[in-house]
Amino acid sequence: MQYGRGVSADPAAEQQSIARIQEGVFFTVPAALPRGRHNLTREQISGAQRERLLAAVTELLAAQGYREFGVGEIARHAGVSLGTFYACFESKDACIFAGYDRFIEVLLRRMQDVDVPVDDRPELAIALIRAYFETLQQDLVVARAYQVEIDALGPEARARRRDSLTLFAAYIRERTAPLELPWTAYIGVVYAARQLASDALDTAATPDLAALGADLQGWVVDLFRAR
């Protein structure tokens, strides 16, 4: 089991020093399970414990970096036992990647919720990029964990990032059809947005990610204008 500076002589103080996720954006931490007899099903209990673990690993990843905590810290931060952790996830990495998958799922859903007339493709494209930045801004803890710190997980993290950015690019192409642009144009927009957000998160405690959409607007509008 891996331990680092995540181990503290005062666990309560350590818990207080770790920034919390924003409830309801990417994760929703359930209330503590009731003691004694209750009417919750096994699936409800397992789902609640899994959600607590996902929020916990995200907070630890954002606050301490990948190498500075282990499974024991995740379980303690979530308020569950080690046995419960291993009933939900086979490893620390599996837990982190499950959190990352949720992160991408929510970002894509927010993009899907964008409602702009399909014939205004430049405005639609910038609205999709803006939805990405604004969703990140709503929970900087989650954004920092999965835009910056996850890179320490190595090749699998890079592969998942490529897959997710390809997914975003394909969605933008689908929404802006029948506009014909090279695939590199779509993927380039997504990579540019992702890198700008990552750099901002890596260099500032409270970056203004929503402003990045305005910075990109001229380029994106020109790229997606009718030809």
Poorly predicted regions: 1-9
Categorize the overall geometry: elongated
> Would you list the SSEs in sequence order as H and E?
HHHHHHHHHH
- Radius of gyration over all CA atoms, rounded: 19 Å
Q: Number of helix segments?
A: 10
- Estimate the mean pLDDT confidence: 89
How much beta, percentage-wise?
A: under 5%
**Main sheet properties:** none
Number of strands: 0
Structural class: mainly alpha
Helix content: 55-70%
Written description of the protein model:
The chain is mainly alpha-helical. The chain has helices spanning 11-17, 42-64, 71-78, 82-88, 92-112, 121-138, 140-147, 155-176, 183-203, 210-224. α2 packs across α5. The N and C termini lie far apart (58 Å).
Sum up the structure in keywords.
single chain, 227 residues, mainly alpha, 10 helices, disordered N terminus
Which helices and strands, and how do they pair?
Blueprint: H1 11-17, H2 42-64, H3 71-78, H4 82-88, H5 92-112, H6 121-138, H7 140-147, H8 155-176, H9 183-203, H10 210-224
Helix pairs in contact: 2-3, 2-5, 2-7, 5-6, 6-10, 7-9, 8-9, 9-10
Entry summary:
Helices cover 66% and strands 0% of the residues.
